[in-house]
Design brief:
By secondary structure, the chain is mainly α. It has 6 helices and 4 strands; from the N terminus they run αββαββαααα.
Length: about 180
């Protein structure tokens, strides 16, 4: 009867998550994904497209069209001058939202990309893992609040998944084996 009331782990290394190795691997995969997501999203804040003209190539011969015909090709490039934390179409919607003060929106626009890059790199290196996860969670909460105010429910749903992943990573953080600073 006592066995039904109190169930203890069966062997060494077992806990609520299963084997320590499994939890460590689960955390590393989650940490890697969240780091990659933050870094690439931060980098994309510096991206833009330019349209350039290139000669039309004949698909059969591989040679340029003899008539000199040109086509427009969009090329993506990254530059510090391209930086935009908040996409232009959303900036206009946020600007019309009375619950978002312009100064707060401007600060968020300037800080979003660098914060994503910093927390992503910290998470990738295991430098202040818990702190970087917590800051990412706060970023996703702030993004969610903004999208709720402008009625972008699909984006809110995607961010809710990110918040859940961050929360799950924080619960697995005790299994963080490959880190430069384990305490934070």
């Amino acid at each position: 009867m006592n066995e039904l009331i109190e169930k203890k782990p069966n062997g060494p290394g077992e806990n609520g998550c299963g084997c320590n190795l499994e939890c460590t691997l689960a955390f590393l995969v989650l940490r890697g994904w969240l780091a990659m997501r933050a870094i690439l999203t931060g980098i994309e804040k510096f991206g833009a497209y330019a349209t350039v003209q290139k000669p039309l190539i004949d698909p059969v011969t591989g040679m340029e069209d003899p008539s000199g015909a040109m086509i427009d090709v969009k090329i993506k490039f990254y530059s510090h001058t391209n930086y935009s934390g908040i996409p232009a179409p959303l900036k206009d919607k946020f600007a019309n939202e009375p619950l978002l003060p312009h100064s707060l929106l401007s600060a968020f626009d300037h800080l979003l990309g660098p914060l994503l890059l910093a927390t992503g790199i910290m998470l990738l290196l295991g430098l202040g893992t818990r702190l970087s996860l917590f800051v990412q969670g706060l970023i996703y909460i702030a993004l969610s609040a903004g999208l709720i105010l402008i009625k972008q429910d699909d984006g809110v749903s995607w961010l809710a998944i990110h918040i859940a992943l961050v929360a799950f990573a924080l619960t697995l953080a005790k299994h963080n084996k490959l880190a430069l600073l384990k305490k934070w």
